[in-house]
Amino acid sequence: MASEEMEQLVRREYKDGFITDIESDTLPPGLDENTIAFISNKKGEPEWMLEWRLNAYRQWLKMKEPSWAHLDYPPIDYQSISYFSAPKRPEDRPQSLDEVDPKLLETYEKLGIPLHERAALAGVAVDAVFDSVSVTTTFKKELGEAGVIFCSISEAIRDYPDLIKQYLGTVVPVADNYFAALNSAVFTDGSFVFVPEGVTCPMELSTYFRINAANTGQFERTLIICESRAQVSYLEGCTAPMRDENQLHAAVVELVALDDAYIKYSTVQNWYPGDENGKGGIYNFVTKRGDCRGDRSRISWTQVETGSAITWKYPSCVLRGKDSIGEFYSVAVTNGRQQADTGTKMIHIGEGTRSYIVAKGISAGRSDQSYRGLVKIGPRAKGARNFTQCDSLLIGDKSGAHTFPYQEIGNSTATIEHEATTSKIGEDQLFYCQSRGISEEDAVSMIVNGFCKDVFQELPMEFAVEAEALLSVTLEGAVG
Amino acid sequence: MLQVNDLHVTVDGKEILKGLTLTINAGEVHAIMGPNGAGKSTLSAVIAGKDGYEVTQGSVTFEGQNVLEMEIEERAQAGLLLGFQYPVEIPGVKNIYLLKSALNAQRVARGEGEMPAPEFMKLVKEKLGFMKMDASFLQRAVNEGFSGGEKKRNEILQMLVLQPKLAMLDEIDSGLDIDAMKVVADGVNSLRAGDRAILLVTHYQRLLDYIVPDKVHVLVDGRIVRTGDAELAKELEANGYEGIEESVA
């Protein structure tokens, strides 16, 4: 049973952290107002932030876990989770790559992860794993000169309280949904980005640069603000499979774009999917929403989802500003026993708003995948337009694909286009490639990458190359 | 080069080839003709390794190797290449990418190493010109939205780039107008070489006016009932397959 599995995980954490080191910063499992006060205190937060968290917690208590998704997992016991755990102490972590699971290293090799980064990803306790300190310093200096703020959300609460008060929870309100409320109560870290008026961020921002600050994954909180005419491209995640002891993940990401601002948010998610029976994989319940608050603003979500045992995720855009644009480009791959219910919501409020949805789902093995998308056009959204393309590719005969499109059209001037296809990876296509001398594995990878091309071309260059390699690794042995 | 001996093949429990024997030597062009349903396409599909065909008896050897035990891609790497009657579309995969992957997979398997990109581009452009195809073909997805004639030209283009030892062309003339057929035939004729063999599978004699075969085999009901030279094809054109069937019966 997966719930036992989780209990075991929790127990192990308990043993490693709390009991062996009473002075450490790790809380025993359980959630109440004291837990939240402890977290807020550990983070050195001001009183108003604590109140904000407690408010979220009290609302969460009154809410019910959603059950509408096409997902099947045992009930989660929220009292059996530890909501604050310090990073593992160096002596408890692998001391060198020799102690790391060779299979994991093999995957890094296939993905072409540079040697010096493999140790960091595998959690090896090496002080200077790579030159991260100097990289970060140079990087921060350049951003500072441009006036861009890029720091952890905890630092932002401390150093930029006015911005936090102004924007936090304005896109995803604390009681937006069950998992968002939980996150609002207990989030421990995440990123904060602020790009001031007229500034184009001089580099792509990536959490990758914060790799050494691991263990922030469980309840991550991200807030990105672009003022008028500002632009930023933010890269989240990493193609390498990430180690994480926490089974439940519930992140919240909020994006705010003012007049003529452009935020491009790219994600590659490759959390542990569990073994072939689906045991031990990550449960990923994410709320991501962008608010096109200003006229002619644009928010673009691009995601490549290959990991996790359970994915519940709908990056959305609220198109408030006149002529604002929302985009969603997604590739979701499931294999083994993975389940994913993912899609997007495009809420058209302003006049002349436009949205584009391109979702590609690939199901292999015994996995099950659903696309769930809402296009809502409000009464004031005159001349709003949406284009949705939603394609599913099945590999083998034991996988499933479902599409749940919802449309709510509130005025007659809107234009909505929806295209959907479901296809099986053609034996004829495979035979064609193989009869040209290409191996079956390469042929599958070629066909699948072709299927995903529309989305991959939206990814930043290096990410796109990694994503292609990732797809091949994820689908290894999916056919035959 | 290729030896097919007493080959029996069933599809879904039904016997299609009933003891087919055929020898093709290097440097020769063979044509297999026959009425619909005689098993013409089955022969080339079995040699290429397509799924769903069960060999119940007989053997296929290519340069001494047992073809039936080889993986599909190994057959191509050994120099056996099938040109499809109905080439499939592969959305999102560029023609140039398929060509490059195929060529390099074959070269690597033969221990030759990948072809350097400039050399590859030069080779492809030359062959493209020969097939009277525009360079934009390379950037289009494999066969996607191609007309029937474009698909067939593309099959021959692949042959010209991949340079197989035995090129098998399944109904390469079907659906072609006369101009397209000439281009395709020129492409095939340019493949003729002392160390290469070509196997044409066709229903109509028309193609053989442009690609003159060394040998013509008539396939009826799963067996080769007659073998002759190019004149045999003309005879068929005049008398039809019924005459042959009757003479056999």
UniProtKB/TrEMBL annotation, chain A:
<dbReference type="InterPro" id="IPR037284">
    <property type="entry name" value="SUF_FeS_clus_asmbl_SufBD_sf"/>
</dbReference>
<protein>
    <submittedName>
        <fullName>Fe-S cluster assembly protein SufB</fullName>
    </submittedName>
</protein>
<dbReference type="GO" id="GO:0016226">
    <property type="term" value="P:iron-sulfur cluster assembly"/>
</dbReference>
<feature type="domain" description="SUF system FeS cluster assembly SufBD core">
    <location>
        <begin position="209"/>
        <end position="451"/>
    </location>
</feature>
<dbReference type="InterPro" id="IPR010231">
    <property type="entry name" value="SUF_FeS_clus_asmbl_SufB"/>
</dbReference>
<feature type="domain" description="SUF system FeS cluster assembly SufBD N-terminal">
    <location>
        <begin position="140"/>
        <end position="200"/>
    </location>
</feature>
<dbReference type="Pfam" id="PF19295">
    <property type="entry name" value="SufBD_N"/>
</dbReference>
<dbReference type="InterPro" id="IPR045595">
    <property type="entry name" value="SufBD_N"/>
</dbReference>
<comment type="similarity">
    <text>Belongs to the iron-sulfur cluster assembly SufBD family.</text>
</comment>
<dbReference type="Pfam" id="PF01458">
    <property type="entry name" value="SUFBD_core"/>
</dbReference>
<dbReference type="InterPro" id="IPR055346">
    <property type="entry name" value="Fe-S_cluster_assembly_SufBD"/>
</dbReference>
<dbReference type="InterPro" id="IPR000825">
    <property type="entry name" value="SUF_FeS_clus_asmbl_SufBD_core"/>
</dbReference>
TrEMBL record, chain B:
<dbReference type="GO" id="GO:0005524">
    <property type="term" value="F:ATP binding"/>
</dbReference>
<dbReference type="InterPro" id="IPR003593">
    <property type="entry name" value="AAA+_ATPase"/>
</dbReference>
<dbReference type="InterPro" id="IPR010230">
    <property type="entry name" value="FeS-cluster_ATPase_SufC"/>
</dbReference>
<dbReference type="InterPro" id="IPR017871">
    <property type="entry name" value="ABC_transporter-like_CS"/>
</dbReference>
<dbReference type="InterPro" id="IPR003439">
    <property type="entry name" value="ABC_transporter-like_ATP-bd"/>
</dbReference>
<protein>
    <submittedName>
        <fullName>Fe-S cluster assembly ATPase SufC</fullName>
    </submittedName>
</protein>
<keyword id="KW-0067">ATP-binding</keyword>
<dbReference type="GO" id="GO:0016887">
    <property type="term" value="F:ATP hydrolysis activity"/>
</dbReference>
<dbReference type="Pfam" id="PF00005">
    <property type="entry name" value="ABC_tran"/>
</dbReference>
<feature type="domain" description="ABC transporter">
    <location>
        <begin position="2"/>
        <end position="246"/>
    </location>
</feature>
<keyword id="KW-0547">Nucleotide-binding</keyword>
<dbReference type="InterPro" id="IPR027417">
    <property type="entry name" value="P-loop_NTPase"/>
</dbReference>
<comment type="similarity">
    <text>Belongs to the ABC transporter superfamily. Ycf16 family.</text>
</comment>
